[in-house]
Each structure stands twice: as structure tokens, then as C-alpha cells.
Amino acid sequence: MSDGPLTGIRVLEFAGIGPGPHAAVLLANLGADVVRVQRPTEPLHADQQLRGRRTVVADLRDPEQLAKVKSLVERADVLIEGFRPGVMERNGLGPEECAKLNPRLVYGRITGWGQDGPFAPRAGHDLNYLGLTGILNAIGPADSPPPPPLNMVADFGGGSMFLVMGVLAALVERGRSGLGQTVDAAMVDGVSALAHFIWSFRDAGLWTDEREDNLLDGAAPFYRTYETSDGKHIAVGAIEPQFYAQLLAGLGLEADDLPFQLDKSSWAELSKTFAGIFRTKTRDEWASIFEHTDACTTPVLSFAEAPLHPHMAARGNLLDVDGTTLPAPAPRFSRTKGELAGPPPLEPSDPATLWR
């Protein structure tokens, strides 16, 4: 157990996939004591997102086993669940029932659509939730369908991160009121909140609904990726004039010979110019050219390469643990330092022995 900022906080996680386990491992890395409840039909396995837990196996249809789980609810600070609305209620573990058992309980619910609304009872995945927010339509080239941005944006950016934020905010409020509450973390809400900046640009007339037509969606030649001579890629983010000047210097270009940086009508042609130059050297040659500049131009690394980059290695944010690469706890604290949670449990715990 670490001495992280959440040391002493007890989290009861009901087994799910994606954002729920991710939220739980983030809390565990910050020192929380996490107990995971899962069905007897689910095997215990070495999924690295299940680090930092003890696991209780329980059939919630069995009154005796349900009573044991309720005894954990009575002693928990936080409950996390990611089922469709109504599932926990049917199991006798909905927010109202749990509040009777433990009025101080913070009850975190993570779903794609939220606890209410026409789509609330429907199935879905990251891409579906992202599609309803307007954000998916804004990603990718203009001449092809929007690509799936992995499942980073809705599941984790708009999902687990907002669940964690909601849980922590509710714990702070509990310090004033003495009472828990329910946190409805919907991925469609979280993604929309992440997009404040884009909505602000759109309301100001600085963003269109067309893909690859805006400052930050790949249309601007100074904010996109380019292929290099070895088939790899370089990321260019030289938005500000002083950074753009350094980009041009590294490319061997003179600003006086080029259109004004923000002249949108010239962006397509300028992108072709930049692309041709970037194809003359390898990715690592370009990385070396721009390494000690503020041109905001950096290599695009693979998963295998990322831990080996000097900056990433110096920060130690991708750790080798018994041959497995794991992200280090984040964010970092000056006093109450979190630590990487222990390995996934391969044997269940007896609920009668926990949190006594």
C-alpha cells in the first residue's frame, strides 16, 4: 500500500470493462484501497488494469453472498459500477439502498449514455458515444470517413477521468456535509466537456463543421503530421509565430518567400511544400534537427519506442515491471507520492476478512 494522497480511502469496484477498471487503478495508484467484486463465472487473470486490488467473488443472486457484499458497502468510502441503468438496483445495490446502508458512500456510476435520456438503456461503445457529441465528425481527413481515435476520447478521456474527478469532488464535499452522493459520469457528457475549446472557437466563427478545414484538425500546414523518408512520421505543432519561424528555419525556408502563415487559402499548397521537404530525411534526422529548438516539431513514436525516448525515460512515466510496460502513477505529488499498485490478484479474498 502506498502513502499516496488517497491512502485510507476504501473503494468498492463492481467488475466491468474499460473505464470502470481504469478509474479504479488510477485511484489505487494514488493510494486508495480497492476491492473488486466479480461474478463466479469471471476468471481471475493478470489483466494489468486490475492491479492494486483484492478481489471478492460473489453471486449477487445468493442472499448470503449479497449480504457479505453489503457488509463491504457499509465500510466503503466509494462504490464504482459501470452497468446499464437499473442493473445494480435489480441486484439490491442501487444508490438508494446503498445510502441506507452507508449515508457517507460516494456512489460512482460510469456509462456511455448516462443514467437518463432516450439512449440510456441502449448498448454502445466509445465510438458510438463519440459520434453523438459532434467530435467524431471533426476528426480525420476530409476525403474519408472519420477514423476511430482508438478508444481514448470517450472511454477514458470523457469517461474514467470524469468519473475519478466526480468521485474526488464528492469526497471533498462529503468533508463539509458528512454525506455521500451519486456521481452520474456519462461519456457523452465528459466528451462534450472536453470540447469546450472547440465549441468556443465554433461560436466565434473560427471553426467549421467540415473535416480538415480548421486550425487544429490537420488543415493547417503547421499543425499536422508528415511522412518522412523512412516511412515514419513527424508531428508539427508550430502555431505561434515565433515557433513557426523556427520551423521554417529548420526546413530551410524563408518566411518572405511564403504566403502569410494564417492565410487559409494557401494552406493546401504550403502543406505540399512541407511534405516534400519532410520526405527528404528520416524521422530521426528531423528529430535531431529540431531537438534543441522551439519549433514544436517532434518524432511520432511507436509503443515500443516511447519508453526509450530520453525525455520519457528521464520522467520514468513508462515503467518496465517484470517485462510488462506500465504507465507510472499520474499526476505527481510533492509530499504524498503515489506508487504503482501491486499486481493483479490471482486468488480471491474472503470478504469477511476485509476492511475490519
TrEMBL record:
Q: Where is this region: Disordered?
A: 325-356
Segments spanning the bilayer are none
Source lineage: Bacteria, Bacillati, Actinomycetota, Actinomycetes, Mycobacteriales
Q: Which Pfam families match?
A: CoA_transf_3
Under the heading SUPFAM superfamilies, the entry gives: CoA-transferase family III (CaiB/BaiF)
User: Which superkingdom?
Assistant: Bacteria
Question: Which GO molecular function annotation, any one, does this entry have?
Answer: catalytic activity
The entry's protein name is: Alpha-methylacyl-CoA racemase
